[in-house]
Amino acid sequence: MNQTQAHPKVVVVGAGWAGLGAAYHLVKQGYDVTLLEAGGYPGGLVAGWKTAQGRSVEAGIHGFWYPYRNIFALVNQLGLSPFTDWTRSSQYSPAGLEVESPIFQQEPRLPTPLGTFLYTQFKRLPLSDRLSALPLLYAMVDFDNSDAAWRRYDPITARELFKQFGVSARLYKESFEPMLLVGLFAPGEHCSAAAALGMLYYFILAHQPDFDVVWCRGTVGEMIFRPWVEQLEHAGGRVLTQRRVTDVIIHTQEERGNAKPQVTGVVCGEEVFEADAVIFAVGVTGMQKIVSSSSTLRQFPEFCNLMNLGAIDVLATRLWFDRKVSVPLPSNACFGFDATTGWTFFDLNALHDEWKDAPGSVIEADFYHANQLLPMNDEDIIAKVHHDLTTCVPQFHDARVIDSSVIRLPKAVTHFSPGSYQYMLPRRTSFTNVFMSGDWIITRHGSWSQEKAYVTGLEAANQVIERFSIGTPAPIIAVEPDEPHIDLARNANRAIRDTLSQFLPTPWLP
């Protein structure tokens, strides 16, 4: 063991859920941890800050769903109580209210997906259209998050998948596409069928309560990330902002009979941070910027291939009104207002402590796949948001906007496009001491979004612990097991596939 291995130096790049998760666990295990964040605030997309007038804003609102078991455990471990109670949600189109969802865990528990089907309150969608989704259940069973399943479904679009399984055009337009627009942030013809199945199963279909959601009672940056960073620093970790990684330093050493490259330092402009191990915990766009600037990483095909991945534009707005408007439910998703854009709006008077007693309504409206909106000026954007809000809740017509915030987030969230799986990275890389994390990293845990990012951060930390044999691995709570009938169906399906594979070549298997 060399001298540094008494307290190995770990550099974590990116201070979002993945990076903070990895750094926090490793520093508690005695590692010398430096966390580098390119922006001015830890938190990545969930960082919050104040306007010049002292009002809180953030880069969009992020919900915390029932299956986020690891994040809920973290918050308890940090001694925080940042969340609202479970909330109901609704869905609007230009025609008005389309869907209301109950708090599913409060309803009698039924086998999946029966509870979701029966308890969701569709206002206009005929039963015949809803029943057209039944054949799609086979794809849900067949897609088991394995590598083989991803490679089977990833090349085709979600739109093609729903057509193949007979989903009616109306059900797709009024139910599945809106879920894709606010879940995968893109229309179905731009989304991987594998990603669509994984997302829908995790958030909606795996278990009846999975669609239940809580919200932070203020900005996530203020209520979770700031105290988390304080505890990380108190434990001995360093968190450095405004540090954009431009390259890495490597040398090749003999390890287990093979000559393998190893990173010995992370470069941020003129600064160099020594490293015994490195964890990258940035989004796709951030990683592409690092690869583009790094003469070292560009030598490795796996990193060059990341340039084939895409990201999606997001627009986050916040409006303060001169009067209170009664919004039926605090969280709402909308579709049909723009052909390829989904959006959500939230009643912050009901969700955030800061605005609970405000004299006027405070509304957050976030737009996904917002390519055509980003070039607009702020005044036109706010006018559009006000108009669309009025379509959903007519009482906003007489309310006047007295303050607003517009945050443009180009290439902000991962685009799970058809064929993208082959370019995504696993936790391990061709470097012996470089590990990957984030919501776009391949993992078999089964989670999505913020929970997935946090879990992959813990998985990367555990790879470091395995490498140095110092410390205790982070406990990771598994996704709740499939219900017995789903487990039985998946086992039978796998057995049939295995049998057919002995007689049919792989391209002939469905």
Give a description of the structure.
The structure is a single chain. α1 (17-28) packs parallel to α10 (220-234) and α1 (17-28) packs parallel to α15 (449-468). The chain starts with 8 loop residues before the first strand and ends in a 9-residue tail after the last helix. The chain is built from 16 helices and 20 strands. A hairpin with a 2-residue loop joins β12 (258-268) and β13. It is α/β, with parallel strands linked by helices. It folds into 3 domains: 3-47 and 220-309 and 425-468, FAD/NAD(P)-binding domain, CATH 3.50.50.60; 89-212 and 480-508, no CATH class; 310-416, Alpha-Beta Complex (Polyamine Oxidase, Chain A, domain 2), CATH 3.90.660. Strands 8-7-6-16-17-18-15-19 form an 8-stranded mixed sheet, with helices on both faces. Strands 10-2-1-14-20 form a 5-stranded parallel sheet.
Multimer state: single chain
Distance between the termini: 51 Å
Largest beta-sheet characterization: 8 strands, mixed
Strand content: 15-25%
Into which percent range does the helicity of residues fall? 25-40%
Number of domains: 3
Radius of gyration in whole Å, from Cα?
23 Å
Total DSSP E strands: 20
Give the low-confidence spans.
Answer: none
**Overall mean pLDDT:** 94
Q: State the helix count.
A: 16
Overall 3D shape: globular
